[in-house]
Each structure stands twice: as structure tokens, then as C-alpha cells.
């Protein structure tokens, strides 16, 4: 939208412009030559995150049964910390993308009430993920209800992917580690759920999880599927590491003994390299689909892995993707247990610094290659082939001539969800 600057002199000619003249009132007293517009945008302050205690626990209930409309229905009970002005935030930054990849456009039907009375909210004009409210004196708890419009990838009759950072509002003013949450989820009938969260109660298709900090919750997705299997990769008391596989068809679920052996050796090798795990229990949340896109998202005690339905059947074609699980597993130590200083952020609403992203991803990828080779996921020859592929790619990617790696680490702040048609020259995520 283009706005036309209006000079105060026009106001006498048209009643419709009186408002503009009022806004520019300060300028109107100046000599004619200086009557240029000045900005009159008012800002409502949003409390910055602070490291202090949050009283009480947020109850967060997610209903994932409306698969026909692909809508998550959310109900939160928030303990009120004090009466007066307060702000609720919808997350914007995601650990996985290192950028502002969450959009509040997917949130709909927001309704806030207390003691059965509706509380009007006002969206911040500058930060659309912030909702301002006035809490009446004496209010103990706020009821917050809304829906999140998902896509088939996150919500279908056979697969539900719960990414908590898309499914909650939280009060501005506290570090996420200071805010306690008790989450629960209602799933469609017949799905089996996997997560690193501890289940404290279950009834049919309802799962109640134990109390966690908001920080931990944001790093603990739930994956549920109709066709699912669970294969242990290591068992060492509480340090159990499990491969949880979800497929679109039961036939795809068979994990060949050879591949399970590769993954077990990879875990053994990782524990030898890094030592004591930074988790009590680890879940590889692997999901097969016919789209075949491979990728992963790292967490401290789990990994979300996307693989092709033919991943294990057509092992020869997976040369480049065989170290996906190893890569995300290494992140438990490199990137999550040890976090680059400026990458750590107290809430998902403030920016992350990415100056050490080359280390976060680069060192992880290095160890993933080593572990894959040592575990037998790739033979010696195949390992050398992948290195040759990398070398060839680098040699033919001239973007480094104008954009150094120290600038490329900034890609999440301006290249997320953007098309990069001239990849070799624009350079992205090298
Ligand atoms: Zn990574």
C-alpha cells in the first residue's frame, strides 16, 4: 500500500483531511518550508523476557481430532500474575529454522475470558504476534481458546504432528524456562503416539503429559500415526534410544535387520565420541511419506526425521540421505546441549543470533559423515563418493566470491521461505 504525504495546508480545503492536519499538528506551527510529515505511530510496549519466577502452571490442552477441517483446537488456562495490562504472545522464531518461520496467520478464533466474562484483546499494530489485554483486579485464571489452521502434513486421519510452538500463547515478560506447562493432547482414534515427553496419564486417545518448562515443551514434539512401529536402538536403563517409525501404509514399516544394525552401531559410535548423553531417553521420530523429501529437525531428546516410503527398500538410492539420523542425533550434543552463545534465546519471540551457525551445522555434518562411515551406513567407497560430491558442488558454487561464509550464516533472517533461483550465485546455507 502506498500512502500519500499530505501537507497541512490542504486541511482547510477539505473536511475529510482535518484528521491528517491534527496528526501533523506539531508540524503545522512550523514555517511553510519545514512542513514535512513526521511519524505519528504510537507503540504499546511489550514486556521483554526477564529471568524471574512465574507463579502457577499453564494447562495446555490440544484437541487434534478435527482432521476433516485440519484444525487444532486449543484451550489454555493461564494463571494471572497481576491485574492490569498484559500481553500474550504467539511464538514467531523456531529453533529448527533459526528464523522467524512461524506465522500468526494460522491462528484463528481467539477468545479470552476470565470468570465466564469475555476479555477484549487488541492485536499489536507493529508486532502482530502480540495480543494486548486488560486483566480485571481479582482475576486468578484466564481461559484462552483458539484454533490453529494446519495442513495435511501436520494433521490427517492417519498422522498427527504436534509442534507445540504452533499451538500455544504465552505471557510476555518471562524466560520460557521459568514458565511451567502441563500439556495434553486428544488424538484421532487408533493412532499411536511417540514423544520424549513423559506421559503421566492416558485414556483411550487422550494423553496427559507431565509438568515441563515452556522451554522444554518447545523442544519436545509429539508424532502420532496409525501405522507405527517402535524399534529399540540402545537400552541402558534410563538412557533408552528408540527408533519410532510411522508410515502411510503398514507394508512400509518393516525395518530390515541390517538397517537396524547400522543404526545401533551409529548410536554406539556417537556415545563413544561424545560420552555421557545430554538426555535421559531419546526418540527418533521418523516419518515415511510418498513425497520422498528427506530432512530432519533436531531436538535435545528427540529428532523429527522425514524419509521416503521407499527409504529402506531402495537403500542404494539413499546415498546422500543415509546419515540423516546420525546428523540429528549429533545435534543433541552439538547445538542443543552446547548452544552457540548468540543462538540461545529466552523465548520464541525474540531473535536468535546466527554467527556460529556454520559451527552448529558444519561440525554436526562432519561428525554425521564420520559416524555413518564407522557404523556401516556408508561403505568406505560411498563415504569417499559423498566427499567428492561435496567438493564438486563447492567448486561450482561461485557465490563465495562475493558473499563470505560469515555473511551466509545470516540466511535465516532474510532467506527463509524465499525462492533462491540463482542458488550458485545467491548462496544459501552453505
Ligand atoms: Zn543440522
Structure description:
Keywords: Signal. It comes from Sphingomonas morindae. Residues 322-428 form the Peptidase M61 catalytic domain. Residues 1-26 form the signal peptide. This is Peptidase M61. By secondary structure, the protein is an alpha+beta fold. The protein has 3 domains: 1-40, no CATH class; 57-225, Sandwich (Immunoglobulin-like); 227-341 and 361-374, Neutral Protease Domain 2 (Neutral Protease, domain 2, Orthogonal Bundle), CATH 1.10.390.10. The chain is built from 10 helices and 21 strands. The chain has helices at 18-23, 25-28, 214-217, 257-274, 324-331, 357-375, 380-395, 405-408, 411-415, 423-426, and strands at residues 57-66, 71-79, 84-89, 107-114, 117-118, 121-123, 130-135, 141-149, 159-162, 170-171, 180-186, 192-195, 199-203, 206-209, 212-213, 222-225, 227-234, 241-247, 282-289, 295-298, 302-308. The strands form 4 sheets. Strands 1, 2, 4, 5, 8, 11, 13, 14 and 15 form a 9-stranded mixed β-sheet that branches. A 5-stranded mixed β-sheet has the order 17-18-19-21-20. β4 (107-114) and β5 (117-118) form a beta hairpin. α5 (324-331) packs across α6 (357-375). It starts with 17 loop residues before the first helix and ends with a helix. Zinc ion binds at residues 298, 327, 331, 361, 364. The site of zinc ion has 5 residues, from α5 and α6.
CATH structural architecture of the largest domain: Sandwich
Enumerate the spans where pLDDT stays under 50 for 5 or more consecutive residues.
2-27
- Separation of the first and last Cα atoms: 35 Å
Which cofactor or ligand species appear? zinc ion
Mean pLDDT: 91
The biggest beta sheet reads:
9 strands, mixed
Separate helix tally:
10
Q: Gyration radius, to the nearest Å?
A: 25 Å
Instruction: Output the CATH class name of the largest domain.
Output: Mainly Beta
Tell me the fraction of residues in β-strands, as a range: 25-35%
Query: How many domains, as an integer?
Result: 3
CATH topology of the largest domain: Immunoglobulin-like
Helical residue percent band: 10-25%
Number of strands: 21
Shape designation = globular
**Structural class, from secondary structure content?**
alpha+beta
Amino acid at each position: 500500500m502506498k500512502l500519500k504525504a499530505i501537507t497541512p495546508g490542504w486541511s482547510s480545503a477539505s473536511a475529510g483531511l482535518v484528521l491528517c492536519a491534527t496528526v501533523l499538528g506539531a508540524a503545522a506551527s512550523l514555517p511553510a518550508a519545514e512542513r514535512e510529515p513526521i511519524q505519528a505511530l504510537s507503540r504499546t510496549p511489550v514486556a521483554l523476557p526477564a529471568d524471574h519466577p512465574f507463579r502457577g502452571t499453564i494447562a495446555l490442552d490440544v484437541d487434534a481430532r478435527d482432521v476433516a477441517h485440519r484444525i487444532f483446537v486449543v484451550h489454555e488456562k493461564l494463571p494471572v500474575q497481576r491485574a492490569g495490562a498484559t500481553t500474550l504472545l504467539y511464538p514467531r522464531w523456531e529453533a529448527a529454522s533459526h528464523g522467524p518461520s512461524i506465522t500468526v496467520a494460522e491462528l484463528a478464533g481467539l477468545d479470552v475470558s476470565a470468570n465466564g466474562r469475555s476479555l477484549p484483546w487488541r492485536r499489536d499494530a507493529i508486532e502482530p504476534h502480540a495480543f494486548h489485554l486488560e486483566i480485571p483486579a481479582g482475576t486468578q485464571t484466564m481461559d484462552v481458546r483458539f484454533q490453529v489452521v494446519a495442513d495435511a502434513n501436520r494433521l490427517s486421519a492417519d498422522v498427527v504432528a504436534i509442534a507445540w510452538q504452533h499451538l500455544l500463547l504465552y505471557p510476555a515478560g518471562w524466560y520460557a524456562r521459568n514458565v511451567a506447562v502441563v500439556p495434553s493432547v486428544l488424538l484421532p482414534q487408533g493412532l499411536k503416539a511417540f514423544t520424549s515427553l513423559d506421559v503421566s496419564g492416558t485414556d483411550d486417545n487422550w494423553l496427559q503429559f507431565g509438568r515441563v518448562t515452556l522451554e522444554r515443551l518447545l523442544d519436545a514434539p509429539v508424532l502420532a500415526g496409525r501405522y507405527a512401529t517402535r524399534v529399540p536402538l540402545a537400552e541402558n536403563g534410563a538412557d533408552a534410544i528408540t527408533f519410532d517409525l510411522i508410515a502411510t501404509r503398514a507394508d512400509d514399516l518393516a525395518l530390515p535387520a541390517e538397517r537396524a544394525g547400522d543404526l545401533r552401531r551409529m548410536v554406539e559410535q556417537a556415545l563413544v565420541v561424545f560420552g555421557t548423553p545430554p538426555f535421559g531417553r531419546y526418540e527418533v521420530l521418523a516419518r515415511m511419506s510418498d513425497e520422498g523429501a528427506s530432512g530432519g529437525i533436531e531436538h535435545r531428546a528427540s529428532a523429527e526425521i522425514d524419509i521416503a516410503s521407499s527409504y529402506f527398500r531402495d537403500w542404494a538410492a539413499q546415498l546422500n540421505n543415509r546419515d540423516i539420523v546420525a546428523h540429528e542425533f549429533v545435534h543433541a550434543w552439538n547445538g542443543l546441549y552446547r548452544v552457540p552463545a548468540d543462538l540461545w534465546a529466552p523465548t520464541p519471540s525474540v531473535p536468535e543470533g546466527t554467527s556460529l551457525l556454520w559451527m552448529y551445522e558444519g561440525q554436526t555434518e562432519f561428525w554425521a559423515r564420520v559416524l555413518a562411515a564407522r557404523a556401516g551406513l556408508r561403505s568406505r567407497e560411498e563415504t569417499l563418493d559423498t566427499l567428492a560430491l561435496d567438493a564438486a558442488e563447492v567448486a561450482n558454487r561461485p557465490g563465495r566470491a562475493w558473499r563470505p561464509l560469515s555473511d551466509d550464516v545470516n540466511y535465516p533472517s532474510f532467506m527463509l521461505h524465499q525462492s533462491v533461483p540463482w542458488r550458485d550465485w545467491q548462496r544459501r546455507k552453505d
